[in-house]
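Incident review: delayed structure delivery

Summary: a single-chain prediction request sat in the queue longer than the usual turnaround. Root cause was a stuck worker, restarted by the on-call engineer. No data loss occurred. The affected request and its eventual output are reproduced below so the record is complete for anyone auditing the incident later.

Affected input:
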Amino acid sequence: MESKLVSDKVLIRQYLRGRETAFEILLNRYRDRVYSYILFTIKDDTLANDIFQETFMKVIRTLKKGAYNEEGKFLPWVNRIAHNLIIDHFRRNQKFPTTSGSENFDIFDIISDNRLNVEQSAIRDQSISDVRKLIQQLPDDQKEVLIMRTYFDMSFKEIAEKTNVSINTALGRMRYALINMRKLSEKHHLTLNK
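Output delivered after worker restart:
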């Protein structure tokens, strides 16, 4: 598919030049990973959806202001925005507005996803839920590395620095996390689809 061959950097430039579909491609490319990270962190579907929408509205505002640093990676940047919004939510002691602007605003009303029909969407949602349950069963050190690598797209060097362990230890934890995820999925008879 052509959109998979286009880099994030090129899509961002196209979007800033007025090609709205370039942002749709970016959103569709990362929506599952960003939403999964938010849901995994706060464990509330309604709130996760609110924070997800707020995250991408902030992404749009930042891009349109020209404040995005192209040197960084797009996904970790988006996940940092989501992470900061989650922290803000908890600081406000559960007083989180549904979204900035209209209460009825839904980002999916303006951005369609023609890739998934209802059945595919249900399968995807179930897979995300299954993966989240499996991740919860991992030991904390493996869970931490898996989340940093998968949802924040951090390098093993960055993970090692952040967790104060060697790169080999970080690699080992990721390896064991994946082995344990496979074992758990077999034990619970789960087929993990992307």
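Verification: DSSP finds ten helices and no strands in the chain.
Action items: add queue-age alerting; document worker restart procedure.
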